[in-house]
Amino acid sequence: MHRERLCRAMAEAMVEKGYVGTSVEDVLKRAGVSRLSFYRLFDSKLDCFMTALEYSTELLLGRVAQALGRSGGGDPVERYERAVTGYLDALKEEWPAARLCLVEVYAAGPEAVARRGELQETMTAVHADVLGATGEQGLLACRMLSAATGALVSGPVAQNDREGLDAVRLQLIAHVRALWGSGVFGAGAG
Q1: Is the domain covering 53-182 a CATH 1.10.357 domain?
Q2: Is the pLDDT of residue 190 over 50?
């Protein structure tokens, strides 16, 4: 219970102060948890951040899974539309988690950036699954789509522009429709 509350407090404090400006004391005040309780759970601010990164990622990926689970079927492009809409809605609704995963992760240092890279590969696998990508070309297209999605959403999130994510959604869907039509994702496409 304290762990999750501290992770949420870490993300919320960083919306206001950024990673560098957020102190352990800021997190403690937000969470209403003692310093002793914090250090029983975490070795450092970075340790808390890394755990908050995991929580935030699970939260956002869970929302994608929920979006895909609703009305289950559909062709791959329809499934992609549901997935990207679920992801962008989650970013808007879970703003502290969005900022933590997409903006503050780079200020937290090499360990956090390396973990962000691993999470990017998870998103690539989600894209490949949703779009039924096959072969090297299909997987490369999904890796590029995952990287482009991260880059396109990071700008509005960094600028605290939730509405800017709506334009990104339309761009991504239009692009995936065009890619699908070209057969770039492999078997079943085109």
Answers
A1: yes
A2: no
